[in-house]
Design goal:
Blueprint (H helix, E strand, L loop, with lengths): L8 H11 L8 H15 L7 E5 L13 E6 L2 H6 L3 E2 L12 E7 L8 H11 E12 L5 H11 L13 H10 L3 E14 L2 H10 L14 H13 L7 E13 L18 H4 L11
Parallel strand pairs: 1-2, 1-4, 2-3, 4-5
Antiparallel strand pairs: 5-7, 6-7
């Protein structure tokens, strides 16, 4: 028996379609993620010819010259604009070993079956193919969360999406079967004049509440949230919000890749190395 969906799949597609028209006014978070992915890709000294852009939005990701890029997005309008296909990241319509690079920016945090999506990403990769992904992870939106807690007092309900922290993200890469997995974070700080500005950005990114179970937000609660947000403003009248961007790097397993040393195969003892009395080495 499968677990119930965390997110409403139909609503998720609809939110993405509704964000399509004004997306360019709110794409700064994804642009930040893409810059991070480009930086990581620039450190890989190998060619990529077949690429999957997973959650493509407008198709902003640009691969190496001559590379073929397939694009997928949950929103029909984004998929059509990017010349891709509509689909969910945890139900990929691509054959195994179709790509040597899979990139994803800004969508994996709202996928119902994130472990399954990573398994599928690994399966569509060729041996020694590369996954590069980024999403908003654990620790994001602390100001909004605090304002919600204040506004709802002793009867809070789930209104913000569950988050995956960097350690759990690394574990998921390993469970999905990726070789040489790496998970790291970067912080993006944004300052807002009002709570409505933050809400506008979330809607414009297609990232408003998509939980399968939702409760209406009363006017009284919203007013208390607005007051709590304004009370946190600095001298310039702006309130700081933070996004913790989790980056994932993993490789499709291949015999040519370096392997961790077999347990017990070390020729030197760590205990011996840490004994006092030896002079430290001088760097040259």
């Amino acid at each position: 028996m499968s677990a119930p969906d965390i997110f409403d799949r139909t609503l998720r597609r609809g939110r993405r379609d509704r964000s399509f028209g004004a997306y360019r006014e709110h794409d700064f978070v994804r642009s930040f993620m893409l810059e991070g992915l480009y930086d990581r890709l620039s450190m890989v000294a190998r060619p990529f010819s077949d690429i999957l852009d997973l959650g493509c939005f407008m198709g902003e990701f640009l691969g190496p010259p001559g590379a073929r890029i397939a694009r997928l997005d949950a929103g029909a309008r984004f998929a059509a604009a990017a010349g891709g296909v509509q689909g969910d990241e945890d139900h990929l319509p691509f054959a195994d070993h179709s790509f040597d690079l899979v990139v994803s920016a800004g969508v994996l945090d709202s996928v119902n079956d994130l472990p399954g999506a990573l398994v599928l990403a690994r399966r569509v990769l060729r041996p020694d193919g590369l996954l590069l992904a980024a999403f908003a992870g654990g620790g994001s939106l602390p100001t909004l969360r605090a304002c919600l807690r204040e506004a709802e007092g002793e009867r809070p309900v789930a209104r913000l999406h569950p988050q995956v922290d960097v350690r759990a993200a690394g574990d998921l890469l390993m469970r999905a079967g990726f070789a040489l997995p790496v998970a790291d974070t970067e912080t993006l700080t944004v300052r807002y004049r009002s709570l409505s500005g933050l809400f506008s950005d979330l809607r414009g990114m297609g990232a408003a509440n998509m939980l399968a179970t939702r409760w209406p937000l009363s006017r009284a609660t919203l007013a208390r949230m607005d007051d709590a947000f304004a009370a946190r403003a600095d001298a310039d009248g702006r309130t700081t919000e933070r996004l913790e961007i989790v980056y994932l790097t993993g490789w499709g397993p291949d015999p040519s890749q370096p392997k961790p040393a077999r347990r017990g195969s070390a020729t030197a003892s760590l205990a011996e190395a840490l004994k006092p009395g030896d002079e430290p080495a001088t760097p040259r």
